[in-house]
Amino acid sequence: MLRDLRAWSDVPVMVLSARNETADKVRALQLGADDYMTKPFWPEELVERVRARLRRPVMARGEVIEVAGLTVDRGARTVRVGEERLELTRVEFDLLCALAERAGEAVTRRVLVERCLDPERDGTERTLDVHVSRLRKKLGALAVVETVWGIGYRLASPEGP
Amino acid sequence: MKLRARLVLAAVGATVPTLVSLAWYDAVSQHRAAVVQLTAYARAHRFAGAEPHDPHDPRDPHGAHGGAPPWHPHGPPPPPGWGPDEGHGPARFPPPDGDPRAPRPARLWRYDASGRALDAEAPAFPSALAATVRDPADDCAVESSWWPSRDVRVLLRLPGADGATWALAVGSTSAAWGAVLPSSGVWLLPVFAVLAAVLLAVGPVIRRVRALAEATRDTSPGTLHRPVALGGSDEVAELARAFDHAASEVRAGLDERERRERALREFLANTTHDVMIPLTVLQGHLSALREGVGDGPASATVTAAMDEAHYLASLVHNLAAVARLDAIEGPPTRAPVDLNALVLRVVARHRPIARQRGVTIEYALPDETVRFDADVTLLEQAVSNVTYNAVRYNRDGGHVAVVLDALGGGRFVLRVLDDGPCIEPAMRAHMFEHGARTEDSRSRAPEGQGLGLHIAVRAAKLHGLALTLDGAEGGGLDVRLTNA
Q1: Which residues of A sit within 8 Å Cβ distance of B?
Q2: How many other β-carbons are positioned within 10 Å of the β-carbon of residue A95?
Q3: φ, ψ dihedrals at B126, nearest 5°
Q4: Which of B423, B425, B457 lies closest to B441 in space, CA to CA?
C-alpha cells in the first residue's frame, strides 16, 4: 500500500504498528515511510511526533533570523526588537545568534561556550552564565531566553516543542 | 609422544638389553668354562712335570715355549683346541693369521717366589692377583673384569721345596666350551626380523588413525554437518562410525534447540503484538479520562492508572528485548540509526508520564545528525529504559535531561541526567552489576530498576558502547552511553 502511495504522492507517512522488530522498521522506512511509531503510545506522544515531523527546521540559513519577536541580522550584527535596536556586546550577540538559530531547542552550555566565548579569555561555563544574565537584562521584558536544567539555554519560540 | 616413536622406543628398549645380557652371559659362561679348563690343565701340567724347569737347560731353555707345553706322556691330554694337532689353528707361537675367534693356545710361565719370571718373554708378574692368594688352602686366582674378555689368566701357587713358586697360565676362551649362543651370530637374524616386522606392522595402523583424524577435521567444525568419511572394516573404521553417530546426535540436539528458540521468538513477537494493541487503546482512554477529570480528586487515580499502563508497555518491550538478547548469536542486525531521531522518540514517549508526575523532561541535540550502526529496537529500548528510570524515580518538580553530543568523527556521548534521589557510589556500582534497586525506591516504585538497567547494560555491550553511571551534580544520576 505504501509503495502504491509513494508512486504518486510525497505526503508524510507515519506507520503505526504493534510490531517492534527492527526488520519491520527498516523495511517500512525503505518502502517510503517517513516515521515509524510502535504501539503502545500516548495520544500526546503521537501529536508531538507528528508536530515534530511537520515543523520546518528553524536553523535559518539566511542572513536574517526572525524569531520570538526579534530580528537578528547576522551580516550587520544587529538585533532589533520591533524597530528598536539593541546594543549588545560581541559575546552577547553571538549568544543570541546561536540560540536563535536553534530557536525552540535547547542548546548545551558546552556548545555555547565553544561557539561564543574566547577560550583564552576565561571561557568557562560560569562566565557563560554571567553573559546570559546580562543578555537577559538587555532583553528586558522580552523574556525569551529560558534556562534548561541539565542542558543550558533555549530561545523560546511559539512554534517550539 | 607419537605412537611410532613410542613403539620404536619400546622395541629398542626391550631388545637391546636382552641382546646385551645374552652376550654378557655368553661371555661369562665361556670365560668360566675356559678358566676351569685352564686351571685343570695348569695343575695337571704342574703335577706332570714335578720339578720346576731349569731355565738354563740348554735343551729347552725357555720352559713352556712355543705354544703347547711338552706333554708328559703320563699327564692328562690337553683339552681340545689346545693340543698341537687340533683343527682350530696350529699350536705354535706366534699364533698365525687365521680365525681370530679361534681359541689361542695356552701358555704357562713360571715365576719364583719373589715374582721374578723364569722365562724372559714372560709377562709382568701380576702382583695384585698374587696378593689375593692369601689363604694357604687357596692356590689359584683368576683375573676377572666386569665384562669377561676372551683372555683368561689364572695364577697358580705351586708349593715347592724352596717356597712357593708361581705359575701363570694364559689362554683364551673357546666356542667349544660353555657357549650359550651359537658362534656364527645367525641367531641375531630372527631377532631383527621380528623387530622389523613389528615396526612395519605399526605403520599401516598409524596411517589409518591419521586418516581418521583428517576425516574428522574435514567435517565442518561446529556444525558437524558432513559425516566422517572413512572406509574399511577394521577397528578404526568402527571408531569413525561411532564418532559419526555421536555427531549426528549433537546435530539433532542443535537443530532441536534452534527450533525451540525460533518458536520462542515467534511466541514473544506475537504476544507483544497482541498485548500492545489493546494497551494502546487503554492508553488512549486513560488519556481522555485524564482530561475529563481535570484536577479533580479522581485525577490522582487516573494518573496512577496511566503510570501502570506505561510501565506495562515498557515491561513487555523489555521482555521481548531480553529474549532477543538471549537469542542473538553473533553480531546483531546493524543498520545506520539516526540517534537524533531516537532521542526525540524516547523523550516523546515518556513526556506524557513525566508531565503527570510533575517532572520536566528536556533534550538537546547537536547541529549535525549523528548516525550509528546498531539494532534500532535494542538501542532504543536501552535508552528508553534509562530515561524512564530517570523519570520514574524522580519527584514532583524534578528534571530529566537527555543530551546527545557529537564529538566528531562519528563519536558521540548520549547522557541522561536527572535530579532524583542521590545514589551512593557503592550503590551505583551494585546497580550496574546486578541491576538492583535502591532501598529508597522500593517504597515509591515497587517495580525494580533491575530489568531496564540490565537490558541497557547488555545492549551497550552488544554494540560495543560504554555505559557508565555517575553521580550528577545536583544529586541523581548521570548515565553516559558512548562510543568514544
Answers
A1: 18-23, 25-26, 37-45, 48-49, 52, 59, 102, 105-108, 110-111, 148-152
A2: 25
A3: -80, 85
A4: B423
* Phi (first) and psi of residue B279, to 5 degrees: -65, -40
Cell numbers for B309, please give them.
499502563
Top-confidence residue, B357 or A57: B357
Q: Which CA distances in Å does A152 have to A135, A156, B158, B415?
A: 14, 13, 129, 14
Residues of A in contact with B418 (CB under 8 A): 150
Looking at residue B381, its pLDDT comes to: 94
Which grid coordinates belong to B233?
572394516
Q: Over the stretch B273-284, which tens digit does the pLDDT of each residue have?
A: 899 999 999 999
pLDDT in tens, B82-134: 544 444 433 333 444 455 556 667 777 777 777 777 777 777 777 777 777 66
Which amino acid belongs to residue B14? A
Average pLDDT over all residues of chain B: 77
Which 3 state secondary structure label does DSSP give B307?
helix
Which candidate, B39, B28, B44, B33, places its Cα nearest to that of B154?
B39
Helix axes A22-30, B376-392, angle to 10 degrees: 110
Q: Is the pLDDT of residue B318 over 60?
A: yes
Residue B117 has what DSSP assignment? B
Judge contact between B126 and B155, C-beta under 8 A.
yes
Calculate the alpha carbon distances from B416 to A32, B13, B136, B386, B407 in Å. 32, 76, 114, 7, 17
Quick one: pLDDT at residue B363? 96
Do B4 and B159 contact (CB within 8 A), yes or no? no
**Read out DSSP for B139-162?**
-EEE---SS--SEEEEEEEE--TT
Burial class (CB in 10 A: 0-12, 13-18, 19+), B318: buried
What single string gives the DSSP state of each residue in B223-246? Answer: T--SPP----SSHHHHHHHHHHHH
Cα A104 to Cα B208: distance, rounded to the nearest angstrom: 79
* Location of C-alpha cell 543570541: A96
Cβ count near A154 (within 10 Å): 22
- The whole-angstrom separation of Cα B399 and Cα B155 is 119
Q: What size, in residues, is chain A?
A: 161
Residue of B nearest to A19 (CA): B273
Q: Residue written as cell 520570538?
A: A68
Question: Best of A29, A36, A42, A109 to disrupt the B interface by mutation (most B CBs within 10 Å)?
Answer: A42
**Element of type H or E holding B208:** helix B188-218
Residue B359 pLDDT greater than 90, yes or no: yes
Contact B99, B86 (CB under 8 A): no
Residue B287 to residue A59, Cβ atoms within 8 A: no
Peptide bond into B421 cis (omega under 30): no
Sign of the four-CA dihedral B378, B384, B387, B393: negative
**Grid coordinates given for B288:** 481522555
Tell me B323's DSSP state.
H
Contact B279 A39 (CB under 8 A): yes
Rounded to a whole number of angstroms, the distance between the first and last alpha carbons of chain B is: 50
Instruction: Please name the member of B345, B352, B401 whose beta carbon is closest to the beta carbon of A42.
Output: B352
Task: Tell whether ipTM is more than 0.90.
Answer: no
Q: What is the torsional sign of CA B136, B138, B140, B142?
A: negative
Strand, coil or helix: B175 = coil
Chain A contact probe: residue of B347, B349, B350 with most A CBs at under 10 A: B349
